[in-house]
Design a protein that fits this description.
Largest sheet: 8 strands, antiparallel
Strand content: 15-25%
Shape: elongated
Number of strands: 26
Structural class: alpha+beta
Strand order of the largest sheet: 4-5-6-7-14-11-10-9
Number of helices: 13
């Protein structure tokens, strides 16, 4: 019998080891841009917190063993000359570990314990387990020894600073095994659900089923598809705290939130194969829509932020989403989404239009999603062309939904608003060869070298041909061998690692590629898609990429990058007839 494929190998330095539904991962990344020497159990409840340090031990010396770390979606291993330690997820909140020839040290990551911070450690006689309680996560981490020789634990019931944890060595047969659970206050003593090898096989099947669902089209021509699927699968968490639905976090590194435009790209990638999960991704920020109709800036386990918003790409996204779903949405589902999109649109037409203004404005670059783009250098409270273009598409989507729901008067109102917004966009912000931005306070206008100024290409077939062609020509100037630089590389403001002032970003790529294709510029769209796919296949799924070298930057396991690869790779595979 042929063994089931284990899935793609990856480096835990770049991508954390985790599983679908879990709120913790195993990784050396313990804080923003902070890498520890050892792997840690890192929880994302109440923020990102390294809770436990996991260290393989040389049985001869009792010190850290020399090992190499290897990972696939179902199994993490520390391999050394004298033996190995394996770790697999038994469930979203439980990992099993076993060792042969090497021991294991499980210690609290933080030494200091105060009345308000740190990790307390004790033996729980009722469960016959050793428990770490974390102030930072508000959760408990219970270690149950299944076999092996346990040394005297260090720091049990101790207060103040010090080491807290335990060492486990092999029994007479040369092996040991343990379980680590993340739990709330209490649960029944741990009982094994299956032997370790069966747990690994179940994890393989879980990931394989997901990959088959979201990327059934994958082939040797899309070599990064399985790893992209793993990045999305492993960053998905179960509903807990303020996360009202199963949610794909942007990352299980430090970008462990759902931002209110990032979620759209994950929803689109999931739609054909995991429609319920896709709809959950799209709806999650709308669960926190405020009384004004605004979406929050971000949502995570214990925090919803409203100090900024994100751009209204949701009409564009929902139009694509409903077309990608395997089964059409029913009237009740369309009506619910119509109401939510209506309130989100009314927010931009009321709270974000100055008196007498026809076009809405951003109040900061953060509202656009392009936080520090050079478009916002002269002023921050700004009318921009990308915002107007997004709103036109959202108004058109509302008109479509109103028609489907039999609300024909409302459909005509939305269509009229879309036409008026597009007319104002072209009359007020099109200079004859480019779009400009306008300050709300004084009415000054300016242009920049940012790709943001070219985002109205997303209007696609709605644009006059000469406008679309002019935008396409300017977009070409942003192309590097790796994709679309967010700032012209010849600009004096270009920065290799300047966030939105140079690096290549996945969402900009997907939006531009879609707009160009709908505007009839297929060759350029094909080129952009090919370069971005090659970039991911070579450099992974980072938050963004150096436009001149392709090097991954910032958070190295970003789901909207992985989902964008899946979207572009799927479309390319279908165009090629595979």
């Amino acid at each position: 019998m042929t063994a089931a494929p284990s899935g793609p190998a990856f480096s835990v330095h770049d991508i954390p080891f985790s599983t679908y539904g879990s709120w913790f991962d195993i990784s050396p990344v313990v804080a923003e841009k902070t890498y520890a020497e050892d792997l840690h159990l890192v929880s994302h409840q109440n923020g990102m917190h390294a809770v436990l340090r996991l260290v393989p031990l040389d049985p001869a010396t009792g010190e850290r063993a020399a090992v190499r770390v290897e990972a696939t979606p179902s199994l993490l291993s520390w391999n050394g000359e004298g033996g190995h330690v394996d770790l697999a997820y038994e469930s979203p909140d439980t990992v099993r570990l076993r060792g042969s020839g090497l021991g294991i040290s499980v210690f609290a990551a933080a030494q200091a314990l105060t009345p308000f911070s740190g990790t307390y450690f004790f033996h729980d006689p009722a469960a016959n387990g050793h428990v770490f309680t974390s102030y930072e996560t508000g959760r408990r981490y219970r270690v149950t020894v299944l076999s092996g020789t346990l040394a005297d634990p260090a720091g049990a019931q101790a207060l103040g600073s010090g080491d807290r944890g335990l060492d486990l060595a092999a029994a007479t047969d040369g092996t040991w095994e343990m379980a680590i659970e993340e739990l709330d206050t209490s649960r029944a003593p741990y009982a094994s659900s299956a032997p370790f090898d069966e747990i690994v096989e179940a994890a393989k099947r879980g990931f394989r089923d997901f990959a088959d669902a979201v990327a059934p089209w994958r082939s040797s021509a899309t070599p990064a598809a399985e790893l992209a699927a793993y990045v999305v699968w492993s960053a998905t968490v179960r509903p807990t705290g303020l996360v009202t639905r199963p949610a794909v976090l942007m990352s299980k590194h430090w970008m462990d939130k759902v931002w209110s435009w990032d979620h759209c790209f994950n929803a689109l990638a999931l739609a054909p194969g995991c429609p319920e999960l896709a709809l959950d991704q799209f709806a999650l920020p709308f669960d926190h829509q405020d009384d004004s109709g605004a979406l929050p800036d971000s949502v995570t386990h214990s925090e919803v932020l409203y100090n900024f918003v994100k751009p209204p790409i949701h009409g564009w996204a929902f139009g694509h989403l409903r077309r990608r779903l395997p089964t059409p949405l029913g009237e009740a589902e369309l009506a619910e989404m119509y109401g939510r999109l209506e309130r989100w649109t009314d927010f931009w037409l009321t709270a974000r239009r100055a008196p007498g203004a026809e076009l809405p404005h951003y109040q900061h670059g953060n509202d656009s999603g392009w936080d520090n783009a050079t478009t916002f250098d002269p002023e921050r409270v700004v009318v921009t062309a990308d915002l107007a273009a997004f709103l036109v598409l959202q108004l058109n989507e509302l008109a479509y939904l109103a028609t489907k729901l039999g609300r024909h008067d409302e459909a005509r109102r939305w269509t009229r608003a879309a036409e008026e917004t597009q007319t104002a966009l072209l009359e007020q912000l099109w200079s004859g060869d480019r779009f400009v931005a306008r300050g709300v306070a004084g009415g000054d206008t300016w242009s920049s070298s940012s790709l943001l100024d070219l985002m109205p290409i997303l209007l696609g077939e709605h644009l006059p041909g000469e406008v679309a062609s002019a935008l396409a020509d300017r977009i070409k100037a942003h192309l590097t061998p790796y994709g679309l630089a967010t700032e012209l590389t010849t600009s004096p403001h270009y920065l290799a690692d300047g966030y939105w002032r140079g690096p290549i970003w996945a969402p900009a790529t997907v939006l531009v590629e879609d707009g160009l294709r709908r505007a009839g510029h297929h060759r350029l769209a094909d080129d952009i898609s090919a370069r971005f796919r090659a970039l991911c296949e070579t450099h992974g799924f980072a938050e963004n990429f150096d436009a001149l070298t392709g090097t991954g930057l910032r958070d190295r396991a970003y789901t909207w990058t992985a989902s964008s690869y899946l979207l572009l790779a799927e479309a390319h595979a279908h165009r090629d007839g595979r």
